[in-house]
Every structure is written in C-alpha cells, then in structure tokens.
Write a structure and sequence with these properties.
- This is Radical SAM core domain-containing protein.
- The protein is an alpha/beta fold.
- It has a domain at about 5-205: Aldolase class I (TIM Barrel).
- The protein is built from 9 helices and 10 strands.
- Strands 1, 2, 3, 4, 5, 6, 7, 8, 9 and 10 form a 10-stranded mixed β-sheet that branches.
- Strand 4 (about 105-110), helix 4 (about 115-125) and strand 5 form a beta-alpha-beta unit.
- The longest helix has 16 residues, at about 175-190.
- It binds iron/sulfur cluster.
- Iron/sulfur cluster binds next to loops.
Length: about 300
C-alpha cells in the first residue's frame, strides 16, 4: 500500500475532515495532494542539542491544521505562502541539507504532509540520507498518523500547548487537544525511546516536549509541566519556551496581547525544578522578538 492512500479520506489530524485530497478536495488545513514548502535552510534557534554549531536542516511546510491566533509563522500557516514541490524534490532538499552539514532534518508543521514525507524519506534514505529525522509537530496529529511514522522518525518534538481545553478552543480553534496529547507522546516514546545524544551533544533519538508559555498563563503552564512529568517522568525532555510575541491576531485577545512577564517565566522554571524535572531546556531572556521569525522567501526550496 502506498502511504499516499492516507490522503483519500484525510484523518491525518484530529480535525478528521475525511476529504479526498487525491481528488482535489481540501479540508481545514487547505493542503491538497501537492507539497508546499516556504523555506528549507539551516536554522540556529532551536534547542542547543538540535541546532548545535552547524544548524538544524529545517523544512517549513506551508498550511497548518491548527489556527493559532498568535502564530508567529502565520504567513505560511494561515496565509498559505510557499512553493509547490514534488515528492522527489522534497527528497532532494533533504539530501541538500545533509550536504550543507545540517545536524538533522527538522520537519516543521508536517502533520498534513505525512504520507508525502514518508515517500520522500524512502527515496532520500535509498540515496544516502543518514542524519536524524525530527518531527516538529503542534501535537494535534491522530494516533494513526504517528503510528505510520514508526521507523522513519528519530526525534519527536511535540508541542503541549495548553492544559485546559477551553484555551485550545479559544486560541487554536481545536477541540480535544489535551485529551489527545498524552497518547501521542506515549506512542512517540514507544517508537524512539529515551533521549540519546552523540559525542557532540546533538540529540540522535528521543522525545522533547515543548511548551510555549503564554502571558498571564502561569497557572495553566504549571499544569502542563505537571502533567508531562507525572505521565512520562525523566523519559522525555521538557523544553519551556519564553519566546511568545504578541502578533498576528493577538490584538483581538487583550489578555494575551502583551509580552511574557519574565518573573512568571522564572516562577515556572522554579516550579518545574521543585517537582523534580531534571531533563529539559529553558530560554534566555530576550528571545521574544519578531526578528526570531525566519523570512519565508522559498530559500532552499
Ligand atoms: S490534515 Fe488537513 S485535511 Fe486532513 S484532517 Fe487535518 S485539517 Fe483536515
């Protein structure tokens, strides 16, 4: 069976639109059967064990199955810019990034393209692609989608955005986000195991769960960290991010139309340490800036 058959009745994410993308229909994410990419380049702003000195070979896919009101990549996720490419071209891009000495292939917002990505990885691996493959997802995949990736992904980077479903609905327009997330992370962990690193400290296998703290959401963020640590303990790394910048439609939501209070971020880190979290990453102050958003001009596509 070709993995592309998964596009016939699309349930790649929990929107479960059930549209036939092979016949030109589109669902919520607006992706059809063609791949659209807005940037494929070395990226230096991920966790140190992902970017390293050489950079992460990051492929930014256009479209998205969420619709976050504060999305920093809204030009590609919700305004849909990017360039259509074939599966063969995607496989070449993977190999070109490896040629550029990338530490890994970093697939950003890949959920709606999983079947095409698997086909492209098959081709590229046959032609010598050996660096680790990272799946950098917003966490609204279906379990079947993650299961289909078994054997193709080395490192999973799922978001865990909210603990309370009402915030997932308000800010990302999704239902059942929280109810779904731990089963996904559990499946990811089953596939790749606990984090392992090469001699340079670059991650080669494992799961890093990311949480972007929103301004004024210390109470919800604590519950997120609690839930991750209570469920998975030291078997996953937790990355607590402070780079929230009020942009896109944030001005329509006054409660989040501001930057993060650094004291709240410090409190969250103290809280994580107090409950026993040892394996993780925090960000320096000053990472909240629009300048950290890469330009999407089809570089490397
Ligand atoms: S990937 Fe797109 S079309 Fe498929 S279920 Fe999700 S939103 Fe709908």
């Amino acid at each position: 069976m070709s993995y592309l058959d998964m596009l016939k009745n699309c349930e790649l994410c929990n929107r479960r639109c059930k549209v036939d993308r092979l016949n030109g229909s589109i669902g919520f994410c607006r992706a059809d059967d063609k791949i659209k990419v807005a940037r494929a380049a070395l990226h230096f702003w991920e966790e140190p064990c992902v970017s390293g000195q050489e950079g992460s070979g990051t492929v930014f896919f256009s479209h998205c199955n969420l619709s976050c009101v504060f999305c920093q990549n809204h030009e590609i996720s919700q305004e849909h810019i990017g360039k259509e490419i074939s599966i063969e071209r995607l496989s070449e891009i993977f190999l070109e990034l490896q040629e550029k000495n990338a530490n890994n292939i970093n697939l950003v917002t890949p959920t709606h393209y999983v079947p095409q990505i698997i086909e492209a990885l098959r081709i590229a691996k046959n032609k010598g692609l050996t660096i680790p493959i990272l799946y950098n997802t917003n966490g609204y995949d279906t379990l079947e989608t993650i299961k289909a990736l078994n054997g193709y992904i080395d490192v999973y980077l799922p978001d865990y955005k909210y603990f309370n479903e009402k915030y997932a609905l308000r800010y990302s327009t999704v239902k059942g986000y929280v109810e779904n997330i731990n089963s996904l992370i559990g499946e990811m962990l089953n596939q790749v195991g606990t984090p392992r690193f090469d001699e340079r400290g670059i991650i080669s296998k494992g799961v890093i769960v990311r949480h972007l703290m929103l301004p004024g959401f210390l109470f919800d963020s604590k519950k997120v960290i609690d839930d991750i640590y209570r469920t998975f303990g030291d078997s996953v790394y937790i990355s607590i991010m402070n780079q929230y910048t009020p942009m896109h439609k944030a001005s329509d939501y006054p409660e989040i139309n501001k930057t993060l209070n650094p004291k709240h971020y410090d409190s969250l880190i103290d809280y994580a340490l107090s409950i026993g979290v040892k394996n993780g990453f925090v960000q320096d102050s000053g990472t909240s800036s629009k300048s950290f958003v890469p330009s999407f001009k089809n570089e490397g596509v």
